[in-house]
Structure formats: C-alpha cells, structure tokens
C-alpha cells in the first residue's frame, strides 16, 4: 500500500440524504433497474491518463500537480500502477482504460518502449487478478510524440506509419492478454492543418490500410473485443478525418469496413463537432455503430476540450434513452475521460470528481428508464410517424410507386396536407418530469 490516498476510505452508497462529502447519493451499483444491476447498465471505467498521468496543465500553463511518480521512469510507473489500483478500489468501479504511454514510460526506441510496456503490463495483469478489476479498453498514444506531428497512419512518411503500426501491435496484444473488451483508435493527429501540403485521398487510403491491418491482426491473435474509432473534430488538427460519427461511417463504408468497427463517442467531442451527445448516440445507434462512450463535458465558455466531469443529469437521461433503446452498450461502457481542474491539487479531489460523475450517470439512467417505462414519449414519436406504417407511406418506402405515380396520386386523391405541431416544448416538459 502507498500513502497517496492516506486517510481516505472506499466510497459507499449512502442515499440522497447523505451529507458525507465522499459518498454516493444516487449511484448504487447493486440496485436493480429494468432487470439489470446499475453497475451492469453503466459499466463505468477510470481513465488512466487523466486520473494519474495528467499534470494539471492547460494551453496557457504547465504542471500544477505534484505526483510522486512524475519523472521517475519505470520505477515511477510501478508506483503509479500501485496508486491506480488503490484508487479503483476506493472509487469501487469495475473497469479502467489506458494508453500505452499512460502506464509505461516511452523509450528511446520502439523496442525499449514495448519492453517498458511489457514490464508494467505484467504488473497490471497481476493486480487485475488480485482485485477483480477489468480492462474496458486499451489504446496507443499516436499523437503526443513529435514524430506524429503530421499524423500517424496519415503521415507522409511511411516510416512513421510503420513505427505507429509497431506501437499498436504491442498495445493490441497486451489488451488481448489482459482480457480487454475493446480496442480504441483515436486519430489525434489524423487530419491536416493546410491543404497546401496535403493529399487528402492519399492520407485516407493510408488510414484505411492502417485500420485494416489492425483488424486483421486482432483476428489473427483471437481478440474478440470490439474495434472502436473515437470521433474527434477540430482539436488538435483543424480538419480531422474522424470529425463525427457520420464522417467516420462514410469513411468506413467507402473502404468496406463498416461491419468491422464501431464508435466510441465522447460528450466533449460531440460538442466540438457542433452536435449534442444524444445526437451522436442516436446517429451511431441508427447505423449500428454505437460501441462505447466517454463521459465528460466541456466548459461552454472555453474553446477546447476541457474534459470536466459530467454534472447534467438531464443530458445523461437523453443519452441513456438511446443506449437503452438499442439494448445497452454490450461490451462497451462509460469511460470517465474526465479530469480534475488544475487548481484541484489534493488526492481527494480525484474521488470527488468521480463521485459527481457516477451520481450524474445514475440519475440519468433512472430518468431514462422511467421515461421509457412511462411510454408516452415513445408513443408521441410513433404517432408523429404513423403515416409511414401503412398505406401511402408503405407504398413509397416499399418502392411500389414511382415519382410519376406519387404525383398522379396526389392529384387524383386531392392530397393537400396541412402542417402539424412538432410539440417540442411539450416533449421537453415531458422529459423533465423524469430527471
């Protein structure tokens, strides 16, 4: 045991009336909701990077945190692993997620980096066996090192592509060995800053080839988890090839990969794309692409991905509505890709942030379940589109009528439709009843 969380106890559910600063008021992991334990609906995970690797910096200032494992190389990484699993127990969630460079220091060569990863990976595996904690997903950091300044898979230099491939191979294999349920590819630099030095078609061909190689290797080693792409617009590249769910789906469909890959959708990224979280979830679900999600939020007054902990139960209720309507997240889950603020220096602040996030998700889940069980919301949606269930609507969708046939029918039957209210304000009030 380390003394990083000295004096802090495991967070327990105490109910809405609790005044304890470190207690769950709404997140009760064993509570049965719609036939499943709350924990099994949410499948929460701790993000190794923001919780243990981030230094408290922002675009205008550097490190503010003073963690005992910083700048300590491999020995520091071992200490960080000890602290991480202590935290997983304190916050009492079943999953975690990591990038390779979050858990192990990057070496001077790929071989050295992979050896470091293997050392810490073995430690993590032992701790998983001892604690029962599970890996929601693993991924490789293909964006921080200067070699990736022009992208990884989309880099104009094939040697950078090759280096990235070697990095992903190691992390994918470790993810498989640790029983990870997903492998995520986040194209943090897979975009461009100016067309003056960019061949878009060339770069997208490269990205598709990279993804195909990952899929093939996953199948070769027997990895049965999901392969996920995480859409991310604007930041850091001005034009990202994985801008949003629709863009990712179009890319996958072009290269015949849409049946092999799903999306990991983040609240903050949806916002940067000009969408709401529920929009991205709805689009992904309609395309069969909703695999997993990241739970966070952005500061609406700041122009970058600030990764605050979620605190809006109403927004989460709408998110859970789409998740529940598709039957849940399956192998996915809610990864807390969220961080404490740069002035939040204490170890306890890490717990406070995750308590807030889990209580928010719990309230959102309960609200969505109540909304669905009530039935009026779904009925109003069905009623609005009822005309497509039979008669003219079915004939149009079924291809029974040509454009000329439809025009003739309008004339013959004297069709003169009148607008009907979309009832948005009523629906907003209805949703608000259950939050």
Automatic annotation (TrEMBL):
One of its GO terms (biological process) is D-xylose metabolic process. It is found in: Cytoplasm. Mg(2+) 2 binds at residues 266, 269, 305, 307. GO terms for molecular function: magnesium ion binding; xylose isomerase activity. Mg(2+) 1 binds at residues 230, 266, 294, 337. GO terms for cellular component: cytoplasm. Coiled coil: none annotated. It is an enzyme of class 5 (isomerase). The keyword Metal-binding applies. Its cofactor is Mg(2+). Belongs to the xylose isomerase family. This is Xylose isomerase. It comes from Devosia chinhatensis. The gene is xylA.
